[in-house]
Amino acid sequence: MTYITKPRLHHPTLTKNKVGYTRRDYEGKVSTLCAGCGHDSISAAIVQACWELDIEPHRVAKLSGIGCSSKTPDYFLGASHGFNTVHGRMPSVLTGANLANRDLLYLGVSGDGDSASIGLGQFAHAMRRGVRMVYIVENNGVYGLTKGQFSATADRGSQAKKGAVNNESPVDLIGMALQLGATYVARGFSGDKAQLVPLIKGAIGHGGAAFLDVISPCVAFNNHAGSTRSYDHVRQHNEALNRIDFIALAPEIHAEPAAGETLDLPQYDGSVMRLRKLHADYDATDKLGAMNHLQVHQARGEVVTGLIYVDLKAGDLHRALNTSRTPLNALNEPELCPGSITLAKINASLR
Amino acid sequence: MKRIEAVNDFVVKFANVNGSGSASANELFAKAILRMGVPVSPRNIFPSNIQGLPTWYEVRVSEKGWLGRRGGIDMMVAMNPQTWGQDVAEIEAGGYLFYDSTKPLPDNAFRDDITVIGMPVTAICNATYEDPRQRTLFKNIMVLGALSVLMEVDAGVIEKLFSEQYKGKERLLESNVRALHAGRSFATDHLKPPIGLRVKRADAVGRRIFVDGNSAAALGCVYGGATVCAWYPITPSSSLAEAFEKYCRKLRVDPDTGENRFAIVQAEDEIASIGIVTGAGWNGARAFTATSGPGVSLMTEFIGLAYFAEIPLTIIDVQRGGPSTGMPTRTQQGDLISSAYASHGDTKHVLLLPQDPTECFEHAAAALDLADRLQTPIFVMTDLDIGMNQRLCEPLAWDETRRYDRGKVMTAEELEAGRDFARYKDVDGDGIPWRTYPGTHPSEGAYFTRGTTRDAYARYSEAGPDYVYNVQRLLKKFDTAANLVPAPLVRAAAKKTRLGVIYFGSTAPAMDEALLALAGEGIHLDAMRLRAFPFPASVRDFVATHDHVFVVEQNRDAQMRTLLINELEIDPAWLIAVLHYDGTPITARFITDIITKHVHALAVAPRRERV
Asked: Fewest 10 Å CB contacts: which of A273, A329, B186, B597?
């Protein structure tokens, strides 16, 4: 969390990554969220992940909707362009931005109100379309900015701060993402940075639509007894599947792991990411198994975290549309305008 | 009975059943006359339905080149029993009725002031063809054959059209030619050709092309450099996005790699469409969506964001009859106010107003330039009448020296050189700020785009002066727009007059004709055709230099008149509304009648006093 204004000058001994940036270079403006907000931990995890992956900050585009979570892109990656769009519509704007320039990394930040209520349709269709992006829902089960109303991901029976009980079924974003065609589906917890940073790194390296549901307790309105999104509740019910250990094995390295303990994930840039399983029998490449596992554990009141599903052969919207390798926003008259001779032929065909 | 006798100047209407394959035969009829050098203007009149409901195709033949709807029918080709009564009633006295006489009809089904021509088309087809589908399809071609004899349309021209249409499909070509001649033989032997309505070769078409506005607008987007199109199907705009895809597949594929230099997404709704276009525009691609009134309603939240955050994008609104689902297959100019002021808060948007397919092409390409130049949404306000009907119009032209105007985009070099980047600052005095594309420079030029208020450096600020600076700058930008958009065109009356008329869009051909008719009656009007909103100073001057100005438009509430009154602070008494809004295209007869009545009334009223 960048809660107190920090000096702009960096200590010269700060470690730089391969592209010459310190971790501080990935920070943004001072957060205006509440002290202890889970969202700030997620911002810090994004900073950490981008720094560790040697991503140049200006090659990231950050997009969000409206809400507490959607304010956070101002608080990390200050050297990146950001776009705080309209409520629930980040996915479409991200889709358009991605179509315009396929060479940037698209980071979509949303909340449970933004994605599970007003934006449920856009969330669903972005998953269907396979837009290459990291789509993070900072999920606290509550509306923070408007002071404590239930969101659509609040569990049935959970209690609001002022005592109201939620009678409606929760929207299961992970289940929907799986069903709708997301090719990287994970759940993290803002209180477990050691697990969250690698999950974000995995999503960044993924070649298709990556969806991350991050349980992020709201300290102001949803961190009390009776809430199923409080720090205590999530810690007690966290059921971790796996750990991503190390990233970016060079393509030529093929260390032989013990059978069943690890899973190698091919990355968009050609490298390989390795996953260490916590449960040898859990296969993150088996979609049906993943769906089943989730349902079983959700029924027990457990929160399954880790990499839930990954499609090792994921493609994206650009592949489906066969768009040019050169970004569309870099094309000009020579590539785009068919010219007057062609137009004369078209005229002739219309007589 | 006095038969109507007319050469190259009449209206034929085909009454058909939707989905019966009549459309292509009807189009052949129109195109054959066109190929004989005689201008035609056909109009599809169709229901919101796929199959079974009545549909009409009205062809106006006019050697003088009048392309507006005339009103009145000289010959009805009545192939739909369901609408028989109204179709027969619509024929002008002395006109003609062509019908399928397979089943005998009682005498009272006809009128005695028209010429009735019966041909047992169904019986002939049933005797000739086994396949029910062929029976229906060739029925239309046989009728075409009979009409060609009755009206002296050159059979060779129709055969040539067949050979172009069925290139490489010899069997289809041959069977069509056979059906055509079967129809011709019957007419020659039994129908006493010719009738009083005849086509004679002329040379009145020239270099003009015959195309629908949606196809032309799609081509304008291709030529104008649009790379991202997101849309949601809605009549009457769907064929625009489909045409864009068709042309892109022909004209925008990298010849070396086979990769597409375009991306088209059929989105889940209009909100996602405009969202995708907003994202693409923000990221430096030229992007557009095609929609109609209900779609614009859904897009309004995003339109406000794009206005306030200053994102270039183009919306092509093919207007239809509203409100609500309204008359989805009928034409209107009813989205002017909802587009001009779309979204909450203080918003104003640029509207372009094409009159025909040629201008649909030009305005679509211009909109993409204007969007980048002005960094704001640009609307192209076409309508169903221009969009979905083929119209004779000037050939499409493209100046090879023309370069896309990408507007004020700061480059990595400029940022590196230390040029000050203030996203929302008016540094050039025209209200238009500079922008950067995402990913341009490692440390300079990044900013956070948002719908919330901010200072000139794009920093979040709710300070009153920051807000006021920004929205005043947007107003200044709108003033700048008034001089960048296509200027209105003025045509002076033959005689000096104190009367003027303002019109725009698809009203143009009917207005051209009405002006001549009115002048023939001694009513002279200076005419101004608006081509865009906001209005440049010349519009105010035009109104100020006339005692009364008629504003002709196709909606109930005089929306353009409202915009004129509101934006130019004109006394409403100076502007007389001429309104046509029943869903059919406006006619010269209608305009002439209304204006004549007003002028006669004004003649007895005192002249407007200047204050």
From this structure: B597
Chain B residue numbers with beta carbons less than 8 Å from the beta carbon of A129 are 265
Query: What is the per-residue pLDDT across B570-596, written as a single tens digit (0 to 9) for each?
Result: 999 999 999 999 999 999 999 999 999
Strand (E) or helix (H) holding B100: strand B91-100
CB B228, CB A100: distance < 8 Å: yes
A78 shares contact with chain B (CB less than 8 Å): yes
CB neighbours (10 Å) of residue B164?
11
Long-range Cβ pairs for the range A5-14 (8 Å, 24+): A5/A30, A6/A30
Per residue, what are the HEC states of B102-136?
Answer: CCCCCHHHCCCCCEEEEECHHHHHHHHCCCHHHHH
A8–B contact, CB cutoff 8 A: no
Q: In one letter, which amino acid is B279?
A: G
**3-state secondary structure at position B499:** strand
Say which residue, B24 or B39, is predicted with more confidence.
B39
CA B96 – CA A101 distance, rounded (Å): 61
**Helix, strand, coil shares, percent, chain A, to 5:** 35, 20, 45
Q: Comparing C-alpha atoms, which of B195, B202, B241, B194 is closest to residue B222? A: B241
The DSSP code sequence of A113-152 is: IIIIIITHHHHHHHHHHT--EEEEEEE-SEETTTTSEE-T
User: What tens digit of pLDDT does each residue of B74-130 get?
Assistant: 999 999 999 999 999 999 999 999 999 999 999 999 999 999 999 999 999 999 888
Token readout for A79 is: 């050297």
pTM of the predicted protein model? 0.95
Contact B278 A328 (CB under 8 A): no
Residue A138 has pLDDT above 70, yes or no: yes
Residue A84 to residue B285, Cβ atoms within 8 A = no
Taking only residues 128 to 147 of chain A, the set having a beta carbon closer than 8 angstroms to any beta carbon of chain B reads 129
Of A296-300, B287-291, B356-360, give the lowest mean pLDDT range: A296-300
Contact map slice: A 326-345 vs B, CB within 8 A = 328-329, 331-333, 335-340, 342-344
Which residues have C-beta within 8 Å of that of residue A64, sequence separation ≥ 6? A70, A71, A72, A73, A82, A83, A84, A85, A90, A108, A109, A110, A114
Residue B81, number of CB atoms within 10 A of its CB:
16
Both tokens of B364, joined, read 């679509």
Q: From the CA of B2, how many Å to the nearest CA of chain A?
A: 36
Fold that domain A23-329 belongs to in CATH: Rossmann fold (3.40.50)
Give the pLDDT confidence of B231-243 residue by residue, as tens digits: 999 999 999 999 9
| pLDDT at A258 exceeding the cut of 70 | no
Candidates A59, A323, A340; nearest CB to B260: A323
Q: Looking only at Cα atoms, what is the longest distance across chain B? A: 89
Q: Are strands B313-319 and B209-212 parallel, antiparallel or unpaired?
A: unpaired
Q: Say if the Cβ atoms of A73 and B265 lie within 8 Å.
A: no
Domains assigned to chain B: 6-198 (3.40.920.10), 211-393 (3.40.50.970), 408-485 (no CATH), 489-604 (3.40.50.920)
- In eight-state DSSP terms, residue B520 is H
Answer whether A122 touches B (CB < 8 Å): yes
Largest distance between two CA atoms of chain A: 76
Q: Report, as an integer, the average pLDDT of B178-187.
A: 96
Decide if B397 and A339 are in contact by the 8 Å CB cutoff.
Answer: no
CA distance B128 to A194: 81
Tens of pLDDT, residue by residue over A167-216, are 999 999 999 999 999 999 999 999 999 999 999 999 999 999 999 999 99
Query: What is the percent of chain B where pLDDT is above 90?
Result: 93
Name the residue type at position B255: P
